[in-house]
């Protein structure tokens, strides 16, 4: 049998994990690995124009497929440039394998004086779930397998593997490997743990006996593909479902039981529920830490928390019942116990109807802007037109500050894994790489990006990647010629003493054309849908540069209400108010 290089062993190991794409930028140390990919069917190397974008694209692959993404950088600057993208994945608990080449195994110490020397293991320590360095050819399968075990088990997350360059060049007999290259089921459990049955029975009793229970779901529900289980439990009990911004789409946002995140209806329900079933969420800052007045007082409002990670139980607010287990399996068992106690399907609760009415009051304040014919274009009109143009199952990517907030008000999400936004980092520049990764993962699905002009410029070079790969994604740039959200804050707090927030009038449509994409600029709201159609018809990556009213961005609606709940605490407006 011919001997295999370390690069060939690495490729064979990744193939067993069903890896189809590796995102990154080539480097000298990576030659054996890249050549092995070139000579192997079933796995492709996707070159981006910045390693950060490679990590973001791998992240998006994982978000829409549920399978770990893979990204790659070479030694030193290549590895360092991966960091921003890996941080985003870590913040949102996205499974990802991060690979980086390293200097020779005998020269890894950065004090040696080697060019591009870097302690990459330590660099990735704060933003990865697990890390290792491969210093021998025989260890490649065992360490990669351990990396996948860590990335996918419990609370998922990115893992980092440093590979010495001489390891990639080394050759050996496949029978001499420390561990054989095997299918995942032969070295790790593919079935996650279910919660304790006695605790599940207690949770069922609490829900059935509650007057106004609520289900609040986070990213853990997406990770375990538990959307169906959430909906069937809610429908059986006739109770509302609220989501974190990250988990949008777990329940269709036009469903009778869904209350939109951050709205008056959702906050009222969260504050007034007597029992809250929190699944796959830790009550982060965008959930106001699970504290009053946006939530009920501890002792008055009972909380049942289900999470795969025991460290998340009771993290940010005290709970009454904690269940450690996979969301899907645990919810399925909980539903069975609920049906034993209450076999009949329940009607929608009266309080939920009141919360829906409060939500309509909240949404009504955005209706005028969404139908405005003014020039420059009102941001809400732009969001509304884009939402109505694309099918419900399109993958929508959002990027920016105010643009993301406007999208909450007008852009509904109907399916899980179709809404991509780095919710726990708020990282700008993820949009275009996210769209690229999503389109490569699901080429049959429409993919569009709604982005602010500030966020778009962080990774605009990836237009060349999209054009080279012939990916017909549609990018809509809400162009207010500023970092609008930051400018709004400077206006509110510092009497319009603006600093570092204004741009020149850049022609993003012309940049797109120069990179082989379709480009168009519009300033008429009645042209939005026509421009979107022309973009789709071009069958190219397309950029629609939309001139929006920057003055609107300086006073975003709901800013004071949400900020005061977050910082101080206020009473929600009544329907009359």
What would you say this structure looks like, in words?
By secondary structure, the chain is of the alpha/beta class. Helices cover 39% and strands 16% of the residues. Helix 1 packs across helix 2, helix 1 runs parallel beside helix 6 and helix 8 packs across helix 12 (327-341).
Task: Give the radius of gyration.
Answer: 25 Å
What is the percentage of strand-forming residues? 15-25%
Number of strands: 20
Architecture per CATH nomenclature, i.e. the level-2 architecture of the largest domain: 3-Layer(aba) Sandwich
In CATH, what is the class of the largest domain?
Answer: Alpha Beta
Report the biggest beta sheet as strand number plus sense, adding barrel if it closes.
6 strands, parallel
Mean pLDDT: 93
Unreliable segments of 5+ consecutive residues: 561-573
Roughly how many Å apart are the termini? Answer: 79 Å
What helical percentage do the residues reach?
A: 25-40%
Total count of helical runs of at least 4 residues: 24
> Can you tell me the CATH superfamily of the largest domain?
Thiamin diphosphate (ThDP)-binding fold, Pyr/PP domains
Q: Write out the strand line-up for the largest beta sheet, numbering strands in chain order.
A: 3-2-4-5-7-6
Tell me, what's the shape?
Answer: globular
User: What is the SS-derived class?
Assistant: alpha/beta
């Amino acid at each position: 049998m011919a001997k295999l290089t370390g690069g060939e062993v690495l490729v064979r190991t990744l193939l067993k994990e069903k890896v189809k794409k590796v995102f990154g930028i080539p480097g000298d140390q990576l030659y054996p690995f890249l050549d092995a990919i070139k000579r192997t069917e079933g796995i492709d190397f996707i070159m981006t124009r910045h390693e950060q974008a490679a990590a973001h694209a791998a992240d998006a692959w994982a978000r829409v497929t549920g399978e770990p993404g893979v990204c790659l950088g070479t030694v030193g600057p290549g590895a360092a440039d991966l960091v921003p993208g890996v941080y985003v994945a870590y913040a949102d608990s996205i499974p990802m394998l991060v690979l980086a080449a390293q200097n020779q195994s005998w020269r890894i110490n950065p004090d040696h004086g080697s060019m591009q020397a870097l302690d990459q293991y330590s660099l990735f320590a704060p933003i990865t779930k697990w890390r290792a360095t491969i210093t021998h050819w025989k260890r490649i399968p065992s360490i990669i397998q351990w990396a996948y075990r860590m990335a996918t088990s419990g609370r998922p997350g990115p893992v980092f593997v440093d590979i010495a360059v001489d390891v990639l060049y080394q050759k050996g007999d496949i029978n001499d490997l420390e561990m054989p290259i095997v299918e995942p089921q032969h070295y790790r459990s593919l079935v996650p743990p279910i919660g304790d049955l006695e605790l599940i029975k207690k949770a069922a009793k609490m829900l059935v006996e509650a007057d106004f229970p609520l289900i609040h779901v986070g990213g853990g529900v997406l990770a375990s593909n538990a959307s169906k289980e959430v909906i069937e439990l809610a429908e059986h009990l006739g109770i509302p479902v609220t989501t974190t911004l990250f988990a949008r789409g777990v329940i269709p946002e036009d469903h009778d039981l869904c209350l939109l995140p951050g709205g008056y209806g959702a906050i009222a329900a969260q504050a007034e529920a007597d029992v809250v079933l929190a699944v796959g969420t830790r009550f982060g800052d965008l959930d106001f830490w699970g504290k009053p007045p946006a939530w009920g007082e501890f002792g008055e409002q009972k909380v049942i928390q289900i999470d795969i990670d025991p460290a998340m139980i009771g993290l940010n607010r005290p709970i009454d019942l904690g269940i450690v287990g996979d969301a899907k399996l645990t919810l399925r068992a909980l539903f069975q116990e609920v049906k034993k106690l209450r076999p009949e399907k329940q009607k929608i609760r009266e309080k939920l109807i009141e919360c829906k009415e409060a939500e309509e009051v909240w949404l009504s304040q955005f209706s005028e802007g969404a139908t405005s014919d003014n020039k420059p274009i009102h941001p809400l009109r732009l969001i509304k037109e884009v939402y109505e143009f694309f099918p419900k199952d399109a993958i929508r990517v959002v990027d920016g500050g105010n643009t993301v907030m406007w999208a909450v008000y007008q852009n509904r999400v109907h399916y899980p894994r179709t809404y991509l936004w780095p919710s726990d980092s708020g990282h700008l520049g993820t949009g275009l790489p996210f769209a690229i990764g999503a389109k490569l993962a699901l080429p049959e699905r429409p993919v569009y990006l709604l982005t602010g002009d500030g966020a778009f410029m962080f990774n605009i070079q990836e237009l060349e990647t999209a054009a080279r790969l012939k990916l017909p994604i549609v990018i809509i740039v809400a162009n207010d010629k500023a970092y609008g959200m930051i400018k709004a804050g400077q206006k509110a707090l510092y009497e319009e003493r603006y600093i570092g927030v204004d741009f020149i009038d850049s022609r993003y449509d012309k940049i797109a054309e120069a990179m082989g994409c379709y480009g168009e600029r519009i300033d008429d709201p009645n042209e939005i849908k026509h421009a979107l159609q022309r973009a789709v018809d071009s069958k190219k990556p397309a950029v629609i540069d939309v001139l929006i009213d920057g003055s609107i961005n300086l006073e975003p609606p709901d800013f004071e209400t949400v900020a005061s709940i977050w910082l101080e605490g206020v009473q929600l407006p009544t329907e009359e108010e």
